[in-house]
Amino acid sequence: METRERYKVSTLILEIAAILLALLFLSPFYFVLVNSFKNLGEILIDAASWPKQFLWDNYSKVWDAINFPLVFRNSFIITICSVIGIVIISSMTAYRLVRRPTVFNKILFTVLISSMIIPFQSVMLQLVRITSLLEIRGHLYGIIICYLGFGLALSMFLFHGFIKSVPLEIEEAAVVDGCSPYGVFWKIVFPLLTPIIVTNIILNTLWIWNDYLLPVLLIGGNNDLTTIPIGITKFFGQYTKQWNLALPGLAIGIAPVIIFFLFLQKYIVEGITAGSVKG
Q1: What's the CATH number where 60 sits?
Q2: Domain count, the chain
Q3: What is the reported pTM?
Q4: Quick check: is 28 in a domain?
């Protein structure tokens, strides 16, 4: 009986701690959502209070000010194309490195993984110069190519660990049945990678959708290529900060990716755990 009571008390304490931690992490969303319906004066006076009057026209003003359909389209195209490319290229690369563990492939894997420790800020100037020389700066496909380069290392690392958990006997049986090497990967191996594929999709979508630095470097003043994060910065000037418009913009911008994350987040733990255990 004492053990059962102690267990219940300890469980209650853990649940309370978990609830408090969840509230802590959710508090930024509360401030963004609540203050998005206030005027600027009310936000500056008390940002934590409930709105005295819900100003729904804040959202319509933001929609027109940043041309939301355009910036949403740009962010959507960049994110979708970059994520699909990262998943396809990194999965194929990881599969080759795992199934062909030659000395060269081991060195190549080490070099690719080592690239993750290079700070982005240290290559910013060189990136601008190279993209200008190649004439891909100021184009959507230029931004997508750069995201492919910066995102492949981590995704390949996750795929590399997960592919080790795929039984080699399944592939050998497919080869005996007359399946080609590409057929083995796309028809047999790739469907088995679903958990880690979803994990990579989620992680890269969250990163690319919310990224500000790379697009602002490569857009080159072209307003037609503005993304959501760059569009929202229009409300922050040197002397004025239009929080009453910036916060509705943030709410609109993060809504699609939050919905996307809630639908797929259950795969994150499964994918990363499987990859790390077998890696």
Answers
A1: 1.10.3720.10
A2: 1
A3: 0.84
A4: no
Q: What are the structure tokens assigned to 113, written together?
A: 């993984």
Sign of CA dihedral 26, 28, 33, 34: positive
Domain that holds residue 246: 56-278
Q: How far apart are CA 50 and CA 55, in angstroms?
A: 12
Residues 6+ apart with CB under 8 A from 190: 91, 197
Using one digit for the tens of pLDDT, what is the confidence trace for 235-256? 887 667 888 888 888 888 888 8
Alpha-carbon dihedral of residues 83, 85, 88, 90, nearest 10 degrees?
Answer: -80
CB atoms within 10 A of CB 47: 13
DSSP 3-state of 221? coil
Q: How far is CA 109 from the centre of its chain?
A: 23
241 strand-pairing partners: 236
**Whole-number Å distance between alpha carbons of 87 and 12:** 42
Q: Which region holds residue 12: left if phi is over 0, alpha if psi is between -120 and 50, else beta? A: alpha
Domain presence at residue 212: yes
What does the pLDDT look like over 92-140, one tens digit per residue?
999 999 998 899 999 999 998 888 888 888 888 889 899 889 888 888 9
User: Helix, strand, coil: what percent of the chain each, to 5?
Assistant: 80, 0, 20
* Residue 72: closest CA among 182, 204, 226: 226
Q: Is residue 44 part of a domain?
A: no
Of the candidates 95, 110, 107, the one whose C-alpha atom is nearest the C-alpha of residue 160 is 95
Angle between helix 266-278 and helix 243-264 axes, rounded to 10 deg: 60
Residue type, 36: S
Asked if residue 116 belongs to a domain, the reply is: yes
